[in-house]
């Protein structure tokens, strides 16, 4: 297949690029500068410009671009960056692929379980309504921006990804050094649910969705057994053989993270119903499996 990927330098995108190419797919990378190689396509999400000529003949698109949610404090300016990087970029890409002749068969567009807001102890699947708060509002706008692709008859899937367990980057990547130093501990009460997915399962799920002809709309990319932050803390301690006695109180989190702390302390108990119903099998369904898979392989 000829597959175009945005966000190819990020944690998920770079790994997906490697896997797709290893299997012989022809992969194009959308880059935010003039194209310099045969596998590059220039685009400017902020100006909503895409070089559609170089996308001709594309069978599928995986859209993963977006500013990191946990990269900076949520000032008004950075919240605008978060929104624009997702909403404007998705709108530009959706309009571009809708104009292709023929258009790609499928667009797998990134989204997040932030769509559901704080679900407390209640398990939710894709049938649940949107929640409240900045991330929930952002996810709704983000998904709505793909409307041109849907209207053009392109099978459009919204990959609502949970917390990706990896030591190589992302939010979880910041936890590993802390726990290795014995500085890991529960956040707040620790009762809040964290819906996770291993990096390997995230990549496998994205690739599964590319070929799952009957699947469109929202799909939760989370393991089937969400756990509380207290359980995550214990599992990290077991995997790294370190104590986990510390507790970070909510005021300290808010001082360090600002508004984003409220989302860290919120609970999201999200289930991957549509992914399981479509025949997907998880390699790392439980938190201990996912954490051990993320540990660096010892060198000899």
Describe the structure.
This protein has 300 residues and is α/β, with parallel strands linked by helices. It has one domain: NAD(P)-binding Rossmann-like Domain (Rossmann fold, 3-Layer(aba) Sandwich). It contains twelve helices and 14 strands. An eight-stranded mixed β-sheet has the order 4-3-2-1-5-6-7-12, sandwiched between helices. A two-stranded parallel sheet has the order 8-11. Strands 9-14 form a two-stranded parallel ribbon. Helix 2 links the parallel strand 5 and strand 6. Helix 1 crosses helix 7, helix 2 packs parallel to helix 3 and helix 8 crosses helix 12. The radius of gyration is 19 Å and the shape is globular.
Concise description?
This protein has 300 residues and is α/β, with parallel strands linked by helices.
What is the CATH architecture annotation? 3-Layer(aba) Sandwich
Low-confidence stretches: none
Adjacency order of strands in the biggest sheet: 4-3-2-1-5-6-7-12
What is the CATH topology descriptor? Rossmann fold
Radius of gyration: 19 Å
Beta-strand fraction estimate: 15-25%
Count of DSSP-assigned helices: 12
């Amino acid at each position: 297949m000829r597959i175009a990927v945005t966000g190819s330098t990020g944690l998920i995108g770079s790994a997906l690029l490697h896997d797709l190419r290893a299997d012989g797919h022809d992969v194009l990378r959308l880059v935010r500068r003039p194209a310099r190689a045969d596998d590059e396509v220039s685009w400017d999400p902020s100006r909503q410009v895409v070089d559609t000529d170089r996308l001709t003949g594309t069978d599928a698109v995986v859209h993963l671009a977006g500013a990191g949610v946990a990269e900076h404090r949520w000032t008004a300016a950075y919240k605008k960056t978060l929104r624009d990087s997702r909403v404007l970029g998705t709108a530009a890409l959706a309009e571009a692929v809708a104009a292709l002749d023929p258009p790609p068969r499928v667009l797998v567009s990134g989204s997040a379980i932030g769509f559901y807001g704080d679900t407390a102890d209640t398990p939710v699947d894709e049938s649940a309504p949107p929640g409240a708060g900045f991330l929930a509002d952002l996810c709704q706008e983000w998904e709505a921006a793909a409307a041109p692709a849907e209207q053009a008859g392109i099978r459009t899937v919204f990959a609502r990804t949970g917390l990706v367990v990896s030591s190589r980057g992302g939010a979880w990547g910041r936890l590993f050094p802390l726990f290795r130093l014995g500085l890991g501990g529960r956040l707040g009460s620790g009762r809040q649910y964290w819906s996770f997915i291993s990096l390997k399962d995230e990549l496998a799920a994205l690739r599964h969705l590319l070929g799952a002809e009957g699947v469109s709309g929202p799909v939760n990319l989370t393991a089937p057994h969400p756990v509380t932050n207290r359980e995550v803390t214990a599992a990290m301690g077991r995997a790294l053989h370190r104590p986990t006695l510390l507790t970070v109180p909510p005021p300290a989190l808010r001082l360090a993270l600002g508004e984003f702390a409220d989302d860290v302390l919120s609970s999201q108990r999200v289930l991957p119903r549509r992914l399981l119903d479509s025949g997907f099998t998880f390699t790392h369904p439980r938190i201990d499996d996912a954490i051990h898979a993320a540990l660096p392989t010892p060198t000899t």
